[in-house]
Amino acid sequence: MEAVAKAVENTSLHDCRDAYAEALEKMAAGDARVCAVINDSLSSAKLKNFKAKYPGRFVNVGIAEQNMVGVGAGLANAGMVPYLCGAACFMTARAMEQVKVDLAYSRSNVRLCGMSPGMAYGQLGPTHHSIEDVAWTRILPNIGVIVPADAVETRAAMLYSLKHEGPLFLRIARMPLPDVHKSGYEFRYGIADVLRWGRDVTLMACGVMVSRALEAAHMLESAGVDARVVNMSTVKPLDRDAVLDAARSTCGIVTAEEGLAAGGLGGAVAEVLAEEHPAPMRILGVRDAFAPTGSAEFLLEHFGLTPGGIRDAALELLEKRR
Q1: 57 DSSP 8-state letter
Q2: Mean pLDDT, rounded, for 187-213
Q3: On the CB side of 15, how many CA atoms lie within 13 Å of its CA?
Q4: Could you check whether 10-179 and 187-321 share the same CATH topology?
Q5: Which residue, 168, 314, 189, 180, is CA-closest to 254?
Q6: What are the residue boundaries of the structural domains of the chain, listed by start?
Q7: What is residue 77's three-state secondary structure?
Q8: Could you tell me where the DSSP H helices lie in 78-132?
Q9: I need a surface site. Which of 15, 55, 121, 168 has the fewest CB within 10 A?
Q10: At residue 7, does pLDDT exceed 90?
Q11: What is the DSSP string of 227-254?
Q12: Is the Cβ–Cβ distance between 228 and 253 less than 8 Å?
């Protein structure tokens, strides 16, 4: 991450889980409806302080993700605002029917906090990788999907979530990240955040890939290419206007995400372009494969999800436009 940090506002790295936990405690202090439900993941969900402060609003259902979603829906029906906090791989895959029926179909006011998503559990292999979660949740009606880019945005998105009506999936990164936003940043649901304006090509990313897209833009600048960088942290509802503006005012779009290339951010952007303004694009992600076992950094490198990989995709796109 040292190379990535050069092009961002703050070179220190932060755990987004700390920001989410702090925000959840702050919300609970001001709103008695806020409660937490976990799946035997107290440490990884960073909720030891929350449990100590609000034991009456803390539920541990054990390793029972389907039950966790059902409990969350019941709490929401009783007027509470439950935050379901657990490993994204189990929360989505194992409990998808409950997410579909109890949350999406029922429009339950529940927040799914998917912890350690993407390939954060790298060494534990495909059973613990969560590369499908954005694609799965994005296609369900009524659920919003938020993938914060750093600790600052994670905190802001959590604070926003309390006033949101309906189910949300928040993807909380485990990998330490540099801040791409300044302190005091205000999250805007459904609105893309342009971190860098450019006229030649657009780099559109979410989550851990945003800081890498910024570094790729820095590399491209050295090659004489003016790249726009868009943080598309709200994958659903997608900011269609930002996508169309990028398609019309730059030569093409490169999307980058820590997940499947099919169905996630890249798929959402491609749908907009196909319907309204066809434009060249490249979709960077995991392509039709289960990621092998290895560290998160190794796996990102393996799939070309690096500043250099984003740069090369942009240069390839521009070369084909000539």
Answers
A1: G
A2: 97
A3: 11
A4: yes
A5: 314
A6: 10-179, 187-321
A7: helix
A8: 88-93, 96-98
A9: 55
A10: no
A11: EEEEE--EEES--HHHHHHHHHHSS-EE
A12: no
Cα gap 110→77, rounded to integer Å? 10
126's tokens:
């495909």
Name residue, tokens 């999250």: 187
Whole-angstrom distance, CA of residue 178 vs CA of residue 47: 23
- Please give the structure tokens belonging to residue 215: 């570094």
The SS3 assignment for 257 reads strand
| CATH no. for 10-179 | 3.40.50.970
Whether residue 208 is predicted with pLDDT greater than 80 in this model: the reply is yes
What is 187-321's CATH topology?
Answer: Rossmann fold (3.40.50)
Q: Which residues contact 271 (CB under 8 A, 6 or more apart)?
A: none
Q: Is 9 a residue whose pLDDT tops 90?
A: no
Between helices 209-222 and 307-321, what is the axis angle to 10°?
A: 50
Residue 197 to residue 240: CA distance in whole angstroms: 17
Query: Which pTM was predicted?
Result: 0.94
Q: pLDDT-derived band of residue 322, with 50, 70 and 90 as boundaries?
A: low
**In 3D, which of 222, 228, 185, 212 has the Cα closest to residue 6?**
212
The model's pLDDT over 85-133, given as tens digits with 9 standing for 90+, comes to: 999 999 999 999 999 999 999 999 999 999 999 999 999 999 999 999 9
Is 157 within 8 Å of 148 (Cβ atoms)? yes
Q: Hey, what are 44's tokens?
A: 């990884």
Summarised one tens digit per residue, pLDDT across range 26-76 is: 999 999 999 999 998 888 899 999 999 999 999 999 999 999 999 999 999
Query: Mean pLDDT over all residues of the chain?
Result: 94
Residue 133: which of 27, 236, 276 has the closest Cα? 236
Q: What is the DSSP letter of 40?
A: S
**H-helix or E-strand spanning residue 259:** strand 253-260
What phi and psi, each to the nearest 5 degrees, are found at residue 233?
-70, -30
